Amino acid sequence: MNRSIKLKTFTISFLLLIIILIGGFAITNRFNDSQRAIADVDRNAQVIVDLSIEIAASQEIVWQIQTGINQWPTWQKNVSKAQLSGSIAVGSTFHWETHGLPIDSTIREVDPMRRIVWGGPAQGIEGVHVWTITPTAKGVLVHTTESWDGPPVAADPDGMRTALTASLNTWLADLKTAAEEHKS
After folding, report:
1. pLDDT per 10-residue tile (average), the chain, 184 residues
2. What secondary structure, in 3-state letters, does the chain show?
């Protein structure tokens, strides 16, 4: 084989390798993007509550307040204690107390500025909580979905749904107040 053909063969092989690597990277990124939103509430749980609120504040401010777990008691009426162990990352845990109920939660998903999911057990109730923050023309839409399941929920699903709805409505209202006061 002459030198020109070897050079062309090498160049073509090298370009094909680059194309394969770029294609593999693109496929991997698409796979990773599709895997980001895999954590969800328990869709078979006895109680699932979905609520939203529009907040006239930036996505960054709302994210900072919502994920500033150690500061929750300063702006949430019903949270008396909150302590994050580590950073806002998958696998990090936090211990908090609401309505006198101690809760240990583990962060299951983080998509910065857009979505956070946590969950864990509390006195026989298995809860999973999904928060999304979506920019709007006026600020953001905060959507929360939470599921509860377990023996205490089975004993009184209607009462538990009412309690969860009231708690989440208060959380959303407190978040709105804190974020809108922060921006001014």
Report:
1. 58 44 39 54 86 97 97 95 94 92 94 95 92 96 95 94 95 97 72
2. CCHHHHHHHHHHHHHHHHHHHHHHHHHHHHHHHHHHCCCCCCCCCCEEEEEEEEECCCHHHHHHHHHCHHHHHHHCCCEEEEEEECCCCCCCEEEEEECCEEEEEEEEEEECCCEEEEEEEECCEEEEEEEEEEECCCCEEEEEEEEEECHHHHHCHHHHHHHHHHHHHHHHHHHHHHHHHHHC
